[in-house]
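ok so for the tutorial part 2 we go from a plain amino acid sequence to predicted structure tokens. step 1 is just haveing the sequence, like this:
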Amino acid sequence: MADKPDSPANHAGHRRRLRDRFLNAGPEALADYELLELILFSALPRVDTKAIAKTLLERFGGFFAVISADPRRLDEVKGVGRAGVVALKAVQAAALAYMRDEIMDKPILSSWDKLLRYCKASMGHNTTEQFRILLRAAN
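step 2 — the prediction. this is what the tokens look like for a chain of 139 residues:
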């Protein structure tokens, strides 16, 4: 007897296949909702994350908008929960740390585009207005 489409055995197989595709073919082989599914797997071990991932993209408009969203707004999406919010915000924190490391302690003029990308990434989706003061280090 074959597994039903939404049986736990089928979900486990789906997760394994998605993980394998990610590792073997790279992140480019995944749609944004599939990447969100991967992020949510460990936070929501017994939940079908595909529907949640698609709802997040529909509500926020894109992968970066999802991970940049206010935690309270993420928590409003049915099924995300506190663990899902933490997983999504951890990805944003990791991305910002990576971008910050690319620009810190490097000549500002040679990495201006990276600095602007970092500023946009760190502030672009905030609901509260922010400003940053950029200082040029003395040589």
